Amino acid sequence: MQTQLAEFIKHTPQGIEADSILRSCVHCGFCTATCPTYNLLGDELDGPRGRIYQIKLVLEGQAANRTTQLHLDRCLTCRNCETTCPSGVQYGRLLDIGREVVSTQVSRSVRQQTMRWMLRKLLTTKGLFEPCLRVGRMVRPLLPAVLKNKIPLIQEVPSLPTESFQRKIILAEGCVQPAYKPATNITVKRVLHRLGIEAITVSAERCCGAVSHHLDAHEEAKQMMRANIDAWWPYIEAGAEAIVSSASGCGVLIKDYGHILRDDINYAEKACKVSDITRDLVEIIDQEDLSKLEIDAPRRVAFQAPCTLQHGQKLAGRVENILRDLGFNLTSVPDPHFCCGSAGTYSILQKDLSTRLQQRKIENLQSDAPQAIVTANIGCQLHLESVAKVPVMHWIELLDDAAVQL
Which domain covers residue 298, as residue numbers? Predict the structure, then answer.
């Protein structure tokens, strides 16, 4: 694709990157076939090819408007199109650039600004989110079903292992997961303990930055990233072999710290190191001797592959292979590449589209009668759990639950 970027961005790092990405797109349209919003709406402007063209026009100097912003907002950032694209177009990075430029040209309504500010503060502040969740659980019986189903009950928490090991990883706990599903990270520690690995947590850790990054608060997100690098760095220097996230939505962004902070003189090198050693949980588990897990009671399950795992981190099929190797019976799931509609705050900001995707996904997951649905991301888990007829859990909990209890 030919480009003539405007002077305001042409020679900036963003402009140089955007120009390279735009030139790699041949407008073949293969991406539209796997785009969830194009599939639902049938509008070229709500598909990757159309959004790329809109971003191109803005970067070439055409003024953005609310319609441009709407079509970019409707993107789930699922990156399914990247998996499909034969030219390797880095659509996700181009979208980040496009959204940031559009946000400087098109103001949002007071309602939108307030909602986005509240989401950024509420979801990323542990001291604020947990008390709000406790209040929600107190009034849960009084709420209508549509709200009640979005507030999970208090989860029973298994006991923590106490033995220390020479092999250590840093476990990135996440923001909402410790409050919503505290058993998940504890289960990570229990399973890794069986494999001879100690998972350590760092109290000074903050939100990974994903929520702020995707809601146009880029500098706020970078501040969180720097704080995390500072918090993790002493443990990295002490020999921690990896930073591991059990939420694929967090992991995909931490792996991108090096790119996002590439122009930060004080943090660029450290950010690259953090990205280099960050692993999704499946990348750790599938390198170990799985016989140590002593799985005793495998069952029939459906696996929901989060977009951030299969498209963002390019780890499609890895969890499924582990589950099959351990004896679990994986049910057939139609269209496994399509997004469930959670997509971070998308389920709140784009409720109609999110609900339509959620309904299609849950029907596909339950179509082959699984005993449970397992996933690899807290956002997907909560989104699906609110409408599922069977239990929905993180796949690591399934391993712990099915293991011989020592």
Answer: 293-401
